[in-house]
From TrEMBL:
NCBIfam families: kynureninase. Its EC number is 3.7.1.3. Homodimer. This is Kynureninase. Keywords: Hydrolase, Pyridine nucleotide biosynthesis, Pyridoxal phosphate. Signal peptide: none annotated. One of its GO terms (cellular component) is cytoplasm. The modification N6-(pyridoxal phosphate)lysine is found at residue 243. Pathway: Cofactor biosynthesis; NAD(+) biosynthesis; quinolinate from L-kynurenine: step 2/3; Amino-acid degradation; L-kynurenine degradation; L-alanine and anthranilate from L-kynurenine: step 1/1. Pyridoxal 5'-phosphate binds at residues 107-108, 140-143, 217, 220, 242, 272, 298.
Length: 419
């Protein structure tokens, strides 16, 4: 908490208003649908709000591009859209040079494709097969399930890193488990529960020292935390686009494969759209050169429309400014929790150092399940993560400081109200 501010001041509407007045990105909030309502939205890290511009984009697509161009649209734009828009995600949010990012499928399916491709290509220096995949016990369920399934299919061993649920995986833990047998390390850059931000550059280097590859899950980073995949030397990454990229429910995920690996990796879902010459309709599968080989079937073009508006907004704001606001929002939430909720037994289950925290904060209390249900009835929308975690997701461009203040005051009111 800033020293000069007393606990009383911090919770005043005038204090939140001053923070909003000083916020260089405050005006961005008006570009989102629903900005005028009193609803408090703490779930932009689960499903981002739509931008107003998106309604026009969707209508124009139906009328002009789909309705007007019909099947010609494939030649004109849609066929390459996974790659051209992938490049845009890479440029605006991932620190990735063109030709290394594609959109398609869900994060779950892309995890399957990239994990399978990586473990099948893994060999140790002696030429024998590397047989271990490393991940942490508190990684997102889909990441754990996919890896366990592949381990069964391919006769591999899963090496688990046991983590503190209020923090995340650290460098020493990674150094301890990787070795000659490690094929791949799969970690989340921002932990979905605690919001812990991993030191991706250092961890990537440690994995490389052991001769293994790293795959970063960026679901809770992309659009909230600056990512520098090329500069960090990352091998593989995936992430979703319906969270901080506001692509809408079920918008396709992205995959990044560093250029140096593309032509030696074979993904397991060999479809015609990843073929070197799809319209040859030839007898045998011949993977395309470059990123196209990671595409399987017809891309979900309609699902790729909305994220273009958010990418344009982030590009205008700049990722550094987005991160700066994100840090200030989560710090304010932590300060308010200390000032207004600690006396009710609420603890902060996220890193307190903003440099080690992504875009959300988790507050812990045994009653949070029922508190969340009551908050939803009051139009305050956080989400609940068992056991006892109230997750406050603060999408930087669509959330105001006043919203944070009102939302946390509502948590206090609900905790104080009789059961
Ligand atoms: C949201 C999220 C997913 C989601 O995967 P889907 O296939 O889109 O359902 C995966 N991993 C992490 C870390 C997530 O936060």
């Amino acid at each position: 908490m800033p020293n000069e501010v007393t606990r009383g001041e911090l919770t005043q509407p005038s204090y939140a208003a001053a923070l909003d007045a000083r916020d260089p990105l405050a005006a961005c909030r008006d570009e989102f649908v629903g900005a005028e309502s009193r609803l408090v939205y703490f779930d932009g890290n689960s499903l981002g709000r739509p931008l107003r511009a998106t309604a026009g984009r969707l209508a124009a697509f139906v009328e002009e591009e789909w309705g007007g161009r019909l099947i010609r649209g494939w030649d004109e734009r849609w066929y390459d859209l996974p790659l051209t828009l992938g490049d845009e995600v890479g440029r605006v949010c991932l620190g990735a040079a063109p030709g290394q990012t594609t959109l398609g499928d869900s994060t779950t399916v892309l995890l399957y494709k990239l994990v399978r491709a990586a473990v099948d290509a893994a060999e140790s220096t002696s030429g024998s097969r590397r047989t271990e995949v490393v991940l942490d016990t508190d990684n997102f369920p889909t990441d754990r399930y996919v890896v366990e399934g592949i381990a069964e299919e391919r006769g591999l061993t899963v090496r688990w890193i046991d983590v503190d649920r209020t923090a995340g995986v650290n460098l020493d833990q990674v150094r301890e488990v990787v070795g000659e047998q490690t094929a791949l390390v799969l970690l989340s850059h921002v932990a979905y529960r605690s919001g812990h931000l991993a030191d991706a550059r250092a961890v990537t280097a440690a994995v490389h020292d052991a001769g293994a590859l790293v795959l970063w899950d960026l679901c809770h980073s992309v659009g909230a935390v600056p990512v520098e995949l090329d500069a960090w030397g990352v091998d593989l990454a995936v992430g979703c686009t319906y969270k901080y990229l506001n692509g809408g429910p079920g918008s396709p995920a992205f995959a990044y494969v560093a250029q140096r690996h593309q032509d030696r990796l074979m993904q397991p879902i060999r479809g015609w759209m990843g073929h070197a010459d799809p319209f040859l309709m030839g007898p045998a599968y011949q993977p395309a050169a470059g990123m196209r080989r990671f595409i399987s079937g017809t891309p979900a073009v309609v699902g790729m429309l909305a994220m273009q508006d958010m990418l344009a907004l982030i590009d205008r704001a700049g990722m550094a400014a987005v991160r700066d606001k994100s840090r200030r929002l989560t710090s304010y939430a932590v300060d308010l929790a200390d000032a207004r909720l600690a006396d009710l037994g609420v603890t902060v289950a996220s890193p307190r150092d903003p440099a080690q925290r992504g875009g959300h904060v988790t507050l812990q209390h045994e009653r949070m399940r029922e508190v969340t249900a009551e908050l939803w009835r009051r139009d305050v929308i956080p989400d609940y993560r068992d056991p006892g975690g109230l997750r406050i997701g603060l999408s930087p461009l669509s959330t105001s400081f006043e919203e944070v203040r009102r939302g946390l005051e509502a948590v206090r009111e609900v905790l104080l109200s009789p059961r």
